[in-house]
Each structure stands twice: as structure tokens, then as C-alpha cells.
Predict the 3D structure of the following.
Amino acid sequence: MKLSRSAKLRWRYAGIVFVVLLMVSAGLAASALASGDGEGSGGKGWVKADWARVLNFGVLALLLFVLLRKPLPKILNGRIEGIKDQLAELEAKKAEAEKQLAGYNEKLSALEQEAEQIVQEYVKQGNEAKARILKEAEATAEKLQQQARRAIEHEFDQAKSKLQADILEKSLKKAEEIIASQINASDQDQLIDEYLAKVVS
């Protein structure tokens, strides 16, 4: 018949107690023998009183063994059960801690993914803002070019008009000078007469 683990432990502890008791009894017997040798009874050595002490101790050891045979294994089993309960509780706590750790790891992974998505969203928004700013800058530059072109054309037209007016004015002055230098008094009288004739007619 194969013994269970708890039964083996009980027999082991009972054996240890029995061996300890035997060792104590042997020690007492040896001390009784030594004390008997030292007495001045002329070499009797071992007397009846010594046998009575050993017998008393044997009965006490047997009585202790009988009395402790049932409660000691119960106490030991109770302690073993307590240790088992503590181990089971520790295992349950370990499993709960591992479960919480897995949950925290999952949350951390989700947070990392969310952070990556946020970074990607910011990068996307930054690229869109960059494209929009470049487009607006191109539109503004084109508008400025058009305004500059119109301003240059306006300035060119004004300068052209002014230049034409200056040329006309100088041409008229030059023509007047040429005419004045080439027309004498008789030519002037003739021109006046022709003008008056046109006006009268």
C-alpha cells in the first residue's frame, strides 16, 4: 500500500520524536549509571533505583508517544495545510499579478499605438499645412508679380507719355525757332492776310 505524502510526513515526525526520546532515555540511563558508580556503596554499580528511573522514563516516553501520536500529526497536518493554503493564495496572487501585468502591457501597447497614430496625424497635418502655406505663398508671389508688372507698365506708360509730351514740346519749340528764323516780315504779313481772308470768307 502506497502512503500519501501527509502520511509519510506524519510517520517521519513520529519517528523523529521516538528517536529523540530514545536518545534522551539513553542519556539519562548513562547518567544514572555514572552516578551509581560514584556512590560509596562499594561497587554495586547499577541499583534498583536506577532501574526504576529508567522504567519511569520509558513509561513517560511511551505515554508521551501515545498522547502525541494523534494531535502531533494533526498539528503538523494543520501546519502543512496552512502552508498549502498560503502557497495556493500566493499562486492566486501571482496569477492575478500576471493578469494585471498582461493588462498593463496591453494598455501600454495600446498607448504606444495611440501615440504613434497621434504622431502620424500631426505629421499629416504638418504636411497639409506646409502644402497650404506653399500654395498661398505661390499665389501671393504671383499676385505680387502681377501688381509689380502692372506698376511697371503704368510707370512705363507715364514715362512714355511724359517723353512724348517732352518730345512734342521740344519739337514745337524747335519748329517755332526754325519758322521764326526762316520767316521775314513780308512773309508774316502775307500769312496774316491769308488767315484773315479765310476768317472773313
